[in-house]
Amino acid sequence: MKVVVVGSVNLDVVARVHRLPGPGETLAASALARHPGGKGANQALAARRLGADVALVGAVGRDPAADEALALLADGGVDLTAVRRVPDLPTGHALITVDDEGETTIVVAAGANADPVVEPAHVRDADAVLSVLEVPDEAVAAAVAAATGLVVLNAAPARPVAPEVLRRVDVVVVNSAEYAELDGLDTAGAVVITHGGDGAEIRRAGVVVATATPPPTTVVDGTGAGDCFTAALTVALLSGRSDAEALRYACAAGALAVSRAGAQPSLPTAAELEAVR
Q1: Can you spell out the DSSP letters for 114-176?
Q2: Which of 88, 100, 159, 241 is deepest in the core (most CB within 10 A)?
Q3: 220 located within any domain
Q4: What are phi and psi of 140, to 5 degrees?
Q5: Mean pLDDT in the chain?
Q6: Considering the domain boundaries, does residue 62 fall inside one?
Q7: Choice among 12, 63, 99, 227 that is catalytic
Q8: Does a structural domain hold residue 212?
Q9: Which of helix, strand or coil describes residue 96?
Q10: What average pLDDT does this structure show over 12-36?
């Protein structure tokens, strides 16, 4: 199966703390790490590790951070031909704080993610096109308009999505807070709502048609778990699994991701995922 992801590429700078800081509070971190990240890049690598042929459409700067942000994608066999090197913008960065319970705070500086170029040829022959809202509305709309296969939109970070875009989307993936914030999502073919450790549900025409819960796990770091879930759901649907089966597969993928540190380092392979289901 061929999956094209139109989305963001970031370098994550991650600080581990005992608890998340309050407003105006300074805490000492126990560790600091740098990991490749970005919702688009995370989803591309996740789908690749689960067996899909994957191409990423996005943008990075012409700076040392770009090679660092793309390293695991390149090593993993993701096609980076359509990732632009933008001369006048830095590679995107995410500043992430993770506490002892795996809860996170994330602030993203978009940088070059504000300037991807989506051409119809990038997505036209894909079995699935997957996009996120860490890139401009114009890039999302162009990808959706040119897609000929399954269209999946991870509507995060939450912002309004044009009605004509939603009507073409086959599956919207959001968490419960995003679902409450965004209007019109039920005009898409299906809406998948994640509830963290409580699992997820699929709604069609506003009616819940399937639910699933993740297997037990020890939460280490929630960064990238939603991206892993979305990629796994996409791969499962392309493989012909039912709504319920695809949801269980995606929940298991998300559970494996939260049990490890880092967004992209935490992403499971297909063999690892089958072993826990």
Answers
A1: G-----HHHHTT-SEEEEETTS-HHHHHHHHHH--SEEEEE--S-----HHHHHH-SEEEEEH
A2: 241
A3: yes
A4: -65, -45
A5: 95
A6: yes
A7: 227
A8: yes
A9: strand
A10: 95
Q: Tabulate helix, strand, coil % of the chain (nearest 5).
A: 35, 30, 35
Percentage of the chain exceeding pLDDT 70? 100
Q: Would residue 238 count as lying in a domain?
A: yes
Residue indicated by tokens 């992430």: 96
Where do runs of H (alpha helix) occur along the chain? 39-49, 64-76, 120-123, 137-146, 163-168, 176-181, 225-238, 243-258, 270-276
CATH of residue 187's domain is 3.40.1190.20
Kindly report the number of other CB atoms within 10 A of residue 137's CB atom.
Answer: 13
Kindly tell me if the per-residue pLDDT of 276 is higher than 90.
Answer: no
Indicate whether this model's pTM tops 0.85. Answer: yes
User: What residues make up the domain containing 9?
Assistant: 2-268
Res 176 pLDDT > 80:
yes
For residue 47, the SS3 value is helix
Compute the half-sphere exposure of residue 169: CA atoms within 13 Å on the CB side of its CA.
30
Domain count, the chain: 1
